[in-house]
Design goal:
Length: 383
């Protein structure tokens, strides 16, 4: 069993770290967090250097890398800056469904625009009435009309809603299906189609440079060529996507935890109280030790889940564990970082306050920790 990264992976990790440390400035993060704006210039630079969609095949503009390499990029981006890193890692959201289940024409049409910095995608799944329960009979309906489908409905809490060029959208195509999820299909719905409208959800707790909003479809007409994969198999396509995206979110959480730990460790070495560096006090040492234990443990399970995916194995049990644990670690480590900073940790000037706000979402989106535990428990009971 080899726990060492290979030379390609080390190069990817080093390149992502150098780019992020140079380009992810604190001033930009603070400004965009306050304004709730997306870093468009930074996104363009990341695309130009091949970081966005690096795990896409070369024929679609990617680098042909695997999940492990993608995880390293996500981790380094979020370790450099949780706010800017979060915004960038989501610009391809949902496009993996096109990559894994779309036809060749769809892949050639959409994927190069993602890797080339020409477009941003969004995954439109969550609905106001159902939240995490996407197995229910969805209110967003796609009705076949000749060579087209007519889509009506509303999606909410959609990442990139107001900046996406298209939405990879889960719709109910057969309302009579039993169970309902066997009558769901996925469509690419371009943002500029007549009847598509978006609304920004402001005043989020964290990840404010990554826009979240509502998407409404009012008699939106899409050609049958926009159906991704098989009709009435959309639920399964989305579930396969989540098995992949959960690993990315786990790496996202890991990076945030590492950033908070780095800040707390540096502060403990500098800050003096009662005539001593606070890092000399055992209570602070124990906090740092506990944080390091959690981060190293999370890193092992995140890397294992990524490696397992690259072996061609889709394992919801393992990916759910990785996301659940890494998300919890991100929340706990950022919490302790604020505690180590004391009163200053509560002030935005010291950054850990922003990291604390950014961390919480990793336990919520792409499946809450409660949903992940349901998946883990089902796997255990089947064994």
């Amino acid at each position: 069993m080899n726990f060492e990264l290979n030379e390609v992976q080390k190069d990817v990790q080093r390149a992502a770290r150098e780019f992020a440390q140079k380009e992810f400035t604190r001033e930009l993060a603070v400004e965009l967090d306050r304004k709730e704006e997306f870093p468009f210039d930074l996104w363009k630079k990341a695309c130009k250097l091949g970081f966005i969609g690096a795990h896409f095949p070369e024929e679609y503009g990617g680098q042909g890398l695997g999940m492990v390499e993608n995880v390293l990029i996500v981790e380094e981006f979020c370790r450099a800056n949780s706010t800017l890193g979060t915004a960038l890692i989501h610009v391809e959201l949902g496009s993996e469904i096109i990559l894994r289940h779309g036809d060749e024409e769809q892949k050639k049409k959409y994927l190069p625009k993602i890797t080339g910095g020409e477009a941003i995608s969004a995954l439109a799944v969550t609905e106001p009435a159902y939240g995490s329960n996407i197995s229910a009979c969805l209110e967003t309906r796609a009705v076949k009309d000749g060579d087209y489908y007519i889509i009506n409905g509303t999606k909410t809490l959609i990442t990139n809603a107001t900046i996406a060029n298209w939405f990879v959208t889960l719709c109910q195509t057969n309302p009579e299906a039993k169970p309902p999820y066997r009558g769901q299909s996925v469509f690419v719905v371009e943002a500029d189609r007549e009847g598509v409208s978006t609304n920004l959800l402001k005043d989020k707790m964290g990840i404010r440079a990554s826009p979240t909003g509502e998407v409404s479809f009012n008699d939106v007409k899409v050609p049958k060529e926009n159906l991704v994969g098989q009709e009435n198999r959309g639920f399964y396509h989305v579930m396969h996507f989540f098995d992949e995206s959960r690993i990315e979110i786990a790496a996202h959480a890991l990076g945030i935890a590492e950033e908070a730990f780095d800040k707390a460790l540096a502060y403990a070495k500098e800050r003096e109280q009662f005539g001593r560096k606070i890092g000399e006090f055992q209570v602070i040492q124990h906090k740092l030790a506990d944080m390091a234990i959690k981060i190293e443990t999370a890193k092992l399970i995140v890397y294992k889940a990524a490696w397992n995916f690259d072996q061609g194995r889709i394992d919801p049990y393992l990916t759910s564990i990785a996301k659940t644990y890494a998300g919890r670690v991100a929340v706990e480590v950022t919490d302790e970082a604020v505690q180590i900073f004391g009163g200053y940790g509560y002030i935005g000037e010291y950054d850990v306050e922003r990291m604390y706000r950014d961390a919480k979402i990793t336990e919520i989106y792409e499946g809450t920790r409660e949903i992940q535990k349901n998946t883990i428990a089902r796997a255990l009971l089947r064994k």
